[in-house]
UniProtKB/TrEMBL annotation:
Gene Ontology BP annotations: lipid metabolic process
Organism: Triangularia verruculosa
CDD domains: Delta12-FADS-like
Keyword annotations of the record: Membrane, Transmembrane, Transmembrane helix
Superkingdom: Eukaryota
Domain Fatty acid desaturase as annotated: residue spans: 153-427
InterPro entries: FA_desaturase_dom, Fatty_acid_desaturase
Name of the featured protein: Fatty acid desaturase-domain-containing protein
Length: 466
C-alpha cells in the first residue's frame, strides 16, 4: 500500500528514500485519486506533480520619496544570539525606529550632491570597457581554430561583458532615481539611452521601481519579491492530488531547476506579468494580462504615465531594429554571442542583487497596518561581492540600506553615508559578509514563506526551514 510520510519522517532525512521506494512502516494511506485523474498513467501523474512543484516560485501577479516622518516607532525586534544553539535561539528586545529626519541629519550634506562630471566619468569608463571587450571578442575569438577553446572564449567574453553592462544598467538606475545629476531632464535622457541599449524599459521600470522604494517591505503594495505567506502555501498544497509538495520542494535537482528559472526568466516575468509584486501594487483595475511594463495602458501605471511608457517602447524598438540590422551583416549567431549572452548575464545579476537585498532570514516584512517607510527601508541587507561589487557594480550591493532610505544619494557617496547612519540606526542596520553566490543558493532554498512574528506585532518573519 502506498502511504504518505508524516512530518517527523520528512525532517529525519529518510524522506528522500520514500521518493524511490515504499515505506510500509508509515501507516497513513492515500485515498483513491479523484475521478478526473484516474485515467492518468503513473508517468503522467508524476509529470503533473513536477510541473506543479516547479511553478511555485514565481507567484502573484508617484513619487518614491516619502515625506519626512517625525514619528519614531517602538517595536520588538529579533536577533540571533552570537553563541546560540544550533537551532538559533532567539531573543527579543525593545528597539525604537528613528524617524527619517533624524537619520538624514546624521549624513553630511555633501553626500546628497551629485555632479554631472563625476557621474558621466563612470559612464565613459564603463562604455569604454564594454567597447574594448566587444572589439577584442569580435576581432580575435573567431580566429581561434579549436572549437572548444573558441567556445570557452565566447563564454568568458559573455560573462565579463555581462559584469560591465550590469554596471551600465546601475548607472541608468542612478539616473532614474535622480542621483545622477541635479538635472532631471538630463537624468532621463541618460537613463533612457543606457537602459534602452540594454533592452530595459526605462520609464516603465522607473515608475514601478519608485513604488518599490515607496513601499519596500509592504506585504500588499511592494512591487518586488513580496513573499508567499503561510496561508498562501497552505492553499497551494496538492490536496487534490494527495501528495505533499514538500516532498518535491526539498529535492536538490528541483531546487536547482527552480533557481535557474528564477535567474533566467525572473526579470522577464516581472516586466510582462508583474510577477512577485504585492496584490495591491496596481495603480488601476486590470487583469493579469494587463500588467505589462510595455503597455501604456497597463494597470501598473497611472494614466498620466502612459506617454512615457510609449517613449520607452520607442527606445526599445530602435535598439531592436539596430540588432536586426546587425544580424543582416554578421548573422544572428554573432549577434547572440556579442549581445545576447551579456543580456542574460545582466538579467541574472539584476535578479540576484534585488532578491538578496530583500530576502534574508532576519529581514521582516510588514502588514498594511504596521508598515512604515522607515521600517520598510531598513528591512534590507547590505552584502559583499568583493572587487566586482565595489568597482564594477558601483557599490549597489554594499550600500543598499542607505540607498533605500535616500535614493538620491549618488553611489560614489553612499559608502560615506552608510557609515554616518550606522550609529543612528544601530542594530537595525543589517549586513551580510558571506559569499554572495553562496547566499543566493542558501537563501533560495531556505526562505520560502513568511508567517506572523509572535515577537513583533504586524511583522512577518521567514519561517524556519524544516
Amino acid at each position: 500500500m502506498l502511504v504518505v510520510p508524516g512530518p517527523g519522517f520528512r525532517s529525519s532525512g529518510r524522506w528522500k528514500k520514500f521518493i524511490f521506494s515504499s515505506c510500509p512502516s508509515f501507516s497513513r494511506p492515500i485515498p483513491p485519486p479523484p475521478p478526473s485523474l484516474r485515467f492518468l498513467t503513473s508517468l503522467q501523474r508524476i509529470s503533473v506533480f513536477v510541473d506543479l512543484a516547479l511553478s511555485s516560485q514565481i507567484h502573484r501577479t508617484v513619487s518614491h520619496h516619502l515625506p519626512n516622518m517625525a514619528t519614531a516607532t517602538t517595536t520588538e525586534t529579533r536577533s540571533r544570539k552570537a553563541n546560540g544553539s544550533a537551532n538559533g535561539v532567539l531573543k527579543t528586545k525593545a528597539v525604537e525606529y528613528p524617524d527619517i529626519q533624524t537619520i538624514r541629519d546624521a549624513i553630511p550634506a555633501h553626500c546628497f550632491e551629485p555632479t554631472v562630471l563625476h557621474s558621466m566619468a563612470y559612464v565613459v569608463r564603463d562604455l569604454t570597457m564594454a567597447g574594448v571587450l566587444g572589439w577584442a571578442a569580435f576581432t580575435y575569438i573567431p580566429q581561434i581554430s579549436d572549437s572548444i577553446v573558441r567556445g570557452l572564449a565566447w563564454a568568458l567574453y559573455g560573462y565579463l561583458q555581462g559584469l560591465v553592462l550590469t554596471g551600465v544598467w546601475i548607472l541608468a538606475h542612478e539616473a532614474g532615481h535622480g542621483a545622477f545629476s541635479k538635472h532631471q531632464n538630463f537624468n532621463d535622457v541618460v537613463g533612457w539611452v543606457l537602459h534602452s541599449a540594454l533592452m530595459v524599459p526605462y520609464f516603465s521600470w522607473k515608475f514601478s521601481h519608485h513604488r518599490h522604494h515607496r513601499f519596500t517591505g509592504h506585504m500588499e503594495k511592494d512591487m518586488a519579491f513580496v513573499p508567499a505567506t503561510k496561508e498562501d502555501r497552505q492553499k497551494r498544497r496538492l490536496a487534490d492530488l494527495y501528495l505533499d509538495r514538500e516532498l518535491f520542494e526539498d529535492v536538490p535537482v528541483v531546487q536547482l531547476v527552480k533557481l535557474l528559472l528564477h535567474q533566467l526568466a525572473g526579470w522577464q516575468m516581472y516586466l510582462m506579468f508583474n510577477a512577485t509584486a504585492g496584490p495591491a501594487s496596481k495603480q488601476r483595475e486590470g487583469g493579469w494580462l494587463r500588467v505589462s511594463h510595455f503597455e501604456p495602458t497597463s494597470a501598473v501605471f497611472r494614466p498620466s504615465e502612459a506617454i512615457y511608457v510609449l517613449i520607452t517602447d520607442i527606445g526599445l524598438a530602435i535598439v531592436a531594429y539596430c540588432l536586426y540590422l546587425a544580424s543582416t551583416v554578421v548573422g544572428w549567431k554573432t549577434v547572440f554571442l556579442m549581445y545576447g549572452q551579456a543580456y542574460f548575464w545582466v538579467h541574472h545579476w539584476l535578479v540576484a542583487i534585488t532578491y538578496l537585498h530583500h530576502t534574508h532570514p532576519d529581514v521582516p516584512h510588514f502588514d498594511a497596518e504596521n508598515w512604515t517607510f522607515v521600517k520598510g527601508a531598513l528591512a534590507t541587507v547590505d552584502r559583499d561581492f568583493g572587487f566586482v561589487g565595489r568597482h564594477l557594480f558601483h557599490g549597489i550591493i554594499d550600500t543598499h540600506v542607505v540607498h533605500h532610505l535616500f535614493p538620491r544619494i549618488p553611489f560614489y557617496k553612499a559608502e560615506e553615508a552608510t557609515e554616518a547612519i550606522k550609529p543612528v540606526v544601530g542594530d537595525l542596520y543589517r549586513q551580510e559578509k558571506g559569499s554572495f553566490l553562496g547566499s543566493l543558493w542558501k537563501t533560495f532554498t531556505t526562505c520560502k514563506y513568511v508567517e506572523a512574528d509572535p515577537n513583533e506585532p504586524g511583522a512577518l518573519k521567514w519561517a524556519e526551514s524544516n
